[in-house]
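Revision sheet: structure tokens.
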Amino acid sequence: MVSIIIPAHEEEKYIGISIERLLSQSGTVFLKKDEKNGLKLNGSDNSENSGKVLCELTVVVTHGKDDTEGVVAKYKEAGVNLISGNFSGVSEARNIGASASEGDVFLFLDADTLLNDGFIKRLDDFKNKDDFIGTSKLLPDINTFKARIFMFCNNIAHIITKTSMALIFCHRDVYKNVGGFDERMQAGEDLKFINLAVKNGFGRFKYLGDISAVTSMRRFEINGYFKTAMEWMGGYFFKPPERYDVVR
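Predicted:
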């Protein structure tokens, strides 16, 4: 089973679209929690779902100023597991989501990132391999020359440096061996998570170029492409910033 974990804080504008894109993935069946019987298939029996990828989706909402929680709650009957609270940051939210997940494959996904069709089925190919961690090809959500060139270079950088943006996938054993995301960090926690997995031999880095996701370029458009790239390079070669500017 593939477990998707989305941390969300003040993402009312994006989270509904992200959830709908996930639920519309072909060849997948999303499971939901049932108080009496545990996990059950949404509105259909096992025979009808033979050959389909079983998934679960957990959205961990940190309380904020908008109605992110209300948007997510609308999808509970569709199989979305909602967890909400006053969490310390994205690392704690991811770890809480992981602790509530039962799949063999974990996908940590940003709230403003949309999976293209076939993504989840591709990840399911790794369910019997316990030593992988990685990311995929990313596309910008705006069709400008600057955004396309930047994301093209960004994808190459991920292959070379074994880093990620917007999404990380791994086997649940890799997650457990690393010990989850460092909750003391407000930025650079994803880089540390991957580095620990690879350097300690818990997982081999995989970049999947045959599947892709579309991610928001809002941070780059507002803060500037050059400035944001320099911040990331500084975090990779020297020290991650204490925190990133909040962009909504």
